[in-house]
Design goal:
The chain is an alpha+beta fold and about 190 residues long. The chain has one domain: Immunoglobulin-like, CATH 2.60.40. The protein has helices at about 5-20, 60, 140-145; strands at about 35-40, 45-55, 80-90, 95, 100-105, 110, 130, 135, 150-160, 165-170, 180-185.
């Protein structure tokens, strides 16, 4: 075999090994968190994207529709943070998606999502009874076709979370006190 042929085979093997490492199987220990799957109860959840939202940007303002009355404007030391999730029922029976979530920072401070009015916000996460192999967001909805491909959990966080990273999203399946967790990028 010629040296040139050996060089081509070695390069092809190196490229194949590099591409094989691109699949994300488990929760990463870095900021490469989007696309991570986690099982909470009988439902599989996928983090589509998480990011700070700008209430003055045209795209982001639609995510803030349906805020509860009296929510008030952001204070000087607060920010809106959106977590967009996708979920799938992997069982052979209808199952309810989670309705209890929290973000926890490295100090142990806990933050609950703001309850959005789903009638006014087509992206808002609400627990759904999913049929076998059913997904949330439900096909043919605003959230399903939206740029994030997920339903929104909206958090009003203090800016101190930037100093208290990493942040962790806790997903509590119905009837359970033990959460599944996803590391969040901020």
């Amino acid at each position: 075999m010629s040296a040139r042929r050996l060089w081509i085979i070695a390069c092809a093997l190196g490229a194949a090994l590099g591409l094989a490492a691109c699949g994300q199987v488990s929760q990463p220990k870095s900021d490469l968190n989007n696309g991570v799957y986690v099982t909470a109860g009988p439902i599989t959840y996928q983090l589509q994207v998480s990011r700070e939202l700008n209430q003055y940007a045209t795209e982001d303002s639609q995510y803030l529709a349906g805020l509860p009355l009296g929510t008030g404007a952001l204070g000087a030391n607060q920010l809106w943070y959106g977590v967009f999730l996708w979920a799938k029922n992997q069982t052979n029976h209808p199952k309810l998606t989670a309705g209890n979530f929290a973000i926890v920072d490295s100090n142990g401070d806990r933050f609950a999502p703001v309850r959005l009015n789903a009638e006014l916000n087509g992206y808002a996460w609400t627990p759904q009874l999913l049929p076998p192999s059913g997904t949330q967001p439900v096909p043919n909805t605003t959230a399903y076709y939206g740029p994030t491909g997920g339903n929104l959990l909206l958090f009003k966080l203090p800016t101190s979370v930037y100093s208290n990273r990493p942040l962790t999203l806790q997903i509590y399946p119905p009837g359970s006190l033990k959460p599944s967790e996803i590391s969040l990028d901020l």
